[in-house]
Each structure stands twice: as C-alpha cells, then as structure tokens.
Amino acid sequence: MSQQTPARTPLPRVLSGIQPTGDSFHFGNYLGALRQWVHLQEEHQPFFFIADLHSLTIEQDPKVLRERFVRCAAQLIAMGIDPDRSAIFLQSHVPEHTQLGWVLQCITGFGEARRMTQFKDKSAKGGEGQASVGLFTYPILQAADILLYRPKYVPVGEDQRQHLELTRDLAGRFNHRYKKTFPLPDPYILKTTGRITDLQNPEAKMSKSASTASGIVELLDEPSVSAKKIRSAVTDSGAEVRYDEQGKPGISNLLTIYSELTGRAISDLESEYAGRGYGDFKGDLADVVVEFVTPFRKRTLELLDDRAELDAVLLRGAEQAREVASRTLADVYDRVGLIRPAR
User: Among 7, 45, 96, 321, which one has the highest count of C-beta atoms within 10 angstroms of its own C-beta?
Assistant: First the structure.
C-alpha cells in the first residue's frame, strides 16, 4: 500500500516594494534594506514590486521615469532576486492595486489620512494647496499594495511603521464592517545595520534627494569613480580608526560600509588598522568597494542589453501577482456589495 506524500506547508507570503528615485541604487538603500530581500527568498514566498504608480505623486519626466523602472528591475535581479522564486513586477501592471485602493479610500477618515507623515512632510515644503490628491492618498494605496496579497510579513524600517499601522487599522476596520477578509500583516523587522551616511556630510543620511554627487556611492557608477569617492570621503580629527558615531561620524560611517560589504566585525577592523591611520584604511576600503560593485554593474548592464528578457520577467511576475490579487479583489467586491462582471 503506497504512502501518501505529506502536503507541503505553503511558505509564508512576504510583500515589499521600491520606488526608484534615480538611475541607480546607492549604498544607503542597498545596504540598509534591499540586499535583505535576497534572504527573504529562502523561507518565504516573496512578491517584490516596483512602485511606478507611487512615483506619479510628483511631476516626472516620462522618458526618464520609464528608463528608471527598467533599470530598477535589472538591478533587483543583479543583486540576487531570482525570478523563479520571487514575483518581480510593476505595480501598474496589476490593476487590482488601484481598484482595492479605491475601496480602502472609502473607509479611511479624512483626518486619519491627513495625519500621515508622508503628506505632512512633503506638503509642508510647498504648502498644502500645492500638494496633489495623489500624495494625500498615497498611504492608502500603499495599504492596498500590501493587503492585496494578504501577506504574513511586510519588511519595514522605522520610517515605515506608521504606514503599516494604517494598513493594519484599515484591514481590521474592513474585517469588522463586512467580514473577515484580511489577516493583519506583521512587520518583518529588517536586520539592524548602521545607518549609511553621506560621505561628505556624515551627519546626514546618504540620500538621492539630499546628498551631493560626491557624497553618495551609486552601484552603477564606474568602479573607479566609486573608489575615488571613498578615498575623498570626509573623516575626522585625529588618525585613529575607531568607531564612535558621535565623536567620529566620518570614520564610523566608513567602518560600517566596510563591515557590511565584507561581513567582518567592526571590532576586527579596528584591531587591524590600529596605528595605521586613515590613508591605509580608505585605500583598502576603496578596493573592497570596487570588488563589490564591479560584478553588480556588469550583470546589470548585461540585463539592460536584453530588454526582451526583462520584459518577460516583469510579465511573468505580474501574472503571478494577479493570480493572488484577483482572488483578493473578488472577495472584497463580494463583501462590499459590488457585482463582478459575468465571464
């Protein structure tokens, strides 16, 4: 009598997205969060999307924007996201995102949306009258992005906790008002890394919008350019290679980068460079950076030369996403009283 193979327990689903803010990832966003997406593939069912719709909350050059989405997809694959294990797709290729977004807008209070940090911070710069409705409803579409896949986990950093809290609030409100439809997603706390700061202003976060060209290491720069930026990075008074975030922010930032790229403990690096000074340290770190960015850049450019393959990856990812998203939206439409079209 043959034995039945036990049913395989489905992997917990995880959902995350990225909005491209430039033509290349930089060390701040890569070391801070993105590379951890690769590890999520090992024990989860991942859905990774490029948030092209969210990019429209501010005025954009369409040609530049379109190219950035393609470059983002290529870099995700180059850094280790495997299309055979993860769905990689464009948010706009799954129309259920905006359809669920509208339903959630209809159960969100105006004051609740107005308190969201994204809207408060960005509208403060140009005045609320200049802010778009899209910026105002951005967090609600973000909640739809998440709930559409009914994930177990959502990777978050400290700056995204408020958005996840809104998502959980809206899920609970929908479940209470209609019928239990959404599990409340749990935060997946990303491994704490030292904050990667601007090479020329180590008091500030490395950021595409705030850093100068010399203060940011882009993964698609020519490797020699990246090495030069490391060698020219601001350090601190004295010559001791020692981690002290308050007293020596410049060298502390470089130690963090060195540690994150090599996996070596900062204490080991401090011992190795004791008595050797900043010059030796920065020269060696420049070599480490070149060794890291060279294959990443090469693989990304190879992928960009094969647009047909990239298009196929995004199409396959969107199809996988829609299989899940369409079922969720069908449940939502039934529960709020909408009539689905007859097939």
Answer: 321
**3-state SS assignment for residue 205:** strand
Task: Give the tokens for residue 60.
Answer: 């954009």
Tokens at residue 29, please? 């966003």
Q: Is 122 in the active site?
A: yes
Could you read off the pLDDT of 19-65 as tens digits, one per residue?
A: 888 899 999 889 888 888 998 898 899 999 999 999 998 888 999 99
* Catalytic residue (choose from 63, 125, 191, 205): 205
**Active-site option among 122, 229, 248, 282:** 122
Region at 219 (left for phi over 0; alpha for psi -120 to 50; beta for the rest): alpha
Tell me: pLDDT of 191 over 60.
yes
Average pLDDT over residues 186-191: 78
Question: Is this model's pTM higher than 0.85 or not?
Answer: yes
In this predicted structure, what is the pLDDT of residue 236? 84
Helix 117-126 to helix 133-147 angle, to the nearest 10 degrees?
160
Q: How far apart are CA 254 and CA 241, in angstroms?
A: 10
pLDDT in tens, 107-162: 999 988 888 776 656 665 666 666 788 888 999 999 999 999 999 998 876 666 77
Verify whether residue 205 is a known catalytic residue.
yes
**Residue whose C-alpha is closest to residue 317's, from 17, 100, 4:** 17
Of the candidates 298, 340, 248, 314, the one whose C-alpha atom is nearest the C-alpha of residue 90 is 314
Please return the burial class of 255, using the count of CB atoms within 10 Å of its CB with bins 0-12, 13-18 and 19+: buried
* Kind of pairing between the strands at 153-156 and 186-189: parallel
Is 208 part of the annotated catalytic residue set? yes
Rounded Cα–Cα distance for residues 320 and 94 (Å): 10
Instruction: Give per-residue burial for 201-227: e unless 16+ CB within 10 Å, then b.
Output: bbeeebbbeebeebbbbbbbbebeebb
Instruction: Pick the catalytic residue from 125, 179, 191, 208.
Output: 208
